[in-house]
């Protein structure tokens, strides 16, 4: 029997993408033997309808800049091209059509986001279609275990945790640093820092 391909999905607003995203994606890629990790910027994030999200094209360009040097990373604009809210269930179904049923998909996210899994669109169907890997840090494991229990045997098979380097970085903090004129060097890739400055983002 041919072994299934394993492909990672790194979804997010990426406003902006930062080294925490990259470190997490690479750690999961190695741990789970993923062929590649697809970075998929959210087009119209349903959980951020009331916030001011940077235009999609800027977020897409920054994500391409941040990932181009890793041959195992690539960026797909499928959520940017889709009308309406960007639901993960729609993206996963599209990827299954693209890569075929003999591929295991691993959705990579922070443990904090996995805590909200029960509220995701069509979550019971979604967990049947792909694995979830939560990047954990001390203090998050118990909450993650509670989420796994919520989904029973399917949760134990489909929701995984992986301790990753502790990087207390958030896109919100980066935007605030830019607004205050503080340095973001080494928090984002150099190319992304230059793009933010060139385009006058987050000021």
UniProtKB/TrEMBL annotation:
Gene Ontology molecular function, alphabetical: ATP binding; nicotinate-nucleotide adenylyltransferase activity
Pathway: Cofactor biosynthesis; NAD(+) biosynthesis
InterPro entries: Cyt_trans-like, NadD/NMNAT, Rossmann-like_a/b/a_fold
Annotated ranges, domain Cytidyltransferase-like: 9-177
GO biological process: NAD+ biosynthetic process
Enzyme kind, highest EC tier: transferase
Keywords: ATP-binding, NAD, Nucleotide-binding, Nucleotidyltransferase, Pyridine nucleotide biosynthesis, Transferase
Assigned EC number: 2.7.7.18
Pfam family, one: CTP_transf_like
HAMAP family: NaMN_adenylyltr (MF_00244)
NCBIfam families linked: cyt_tran_rel (TIGR00125), nicotinate (nicotinamide) nucleotide adenylyltransferase (TIGR00482), PRK00071.1-3 (NF000840)
Name the UniProt record assigns to this protein: Putative nicotinate-nucleotide adenylyltransferase
Gene encoding the protein: nadD_4
């Amino acid at each position: 029997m041919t072994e299934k391909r394993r492909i990672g999905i790194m979804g997010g607003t990426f406003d902006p993408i930062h080294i925490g995203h990259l470190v997490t994606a690479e750690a999961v890629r190695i741990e789970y033997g993923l062929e590649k990790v697809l970075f998929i910027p959210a087009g119209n994030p349903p959980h951020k309808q009331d916030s001011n999200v940077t235009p999609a094209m800027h977020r897409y360009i920054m994500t391409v800049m941040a990932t181009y040097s890793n041959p195992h990373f690539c960026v797909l604009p499928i959520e940017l091209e889709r009308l309406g809210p960007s639901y993960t269930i729609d993206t996963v179904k599209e990827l299954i059509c693209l890569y075929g049923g003999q591929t295991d998909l691993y959705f990579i996210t922070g443990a904090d986001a996995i805590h909200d899994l029960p509220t995701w669109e069509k979550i019971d169907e979604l967990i049947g279609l792909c694995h979830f890997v939560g990047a954990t840090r001390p203090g998050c494991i118990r909450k993650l275990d509670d989420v796994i229990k919520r989904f029973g045997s399917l949760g134990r098979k489909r929701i995984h945790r992986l301790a990753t380097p502790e990087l207390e970085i958030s896109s919100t903090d980066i935007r605030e640093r830019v607004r205050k004129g503080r340095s973001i060097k080494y928090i984002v890739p150099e190319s992304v820092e230059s793009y933010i400055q060139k385009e006058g983002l987050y000021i």
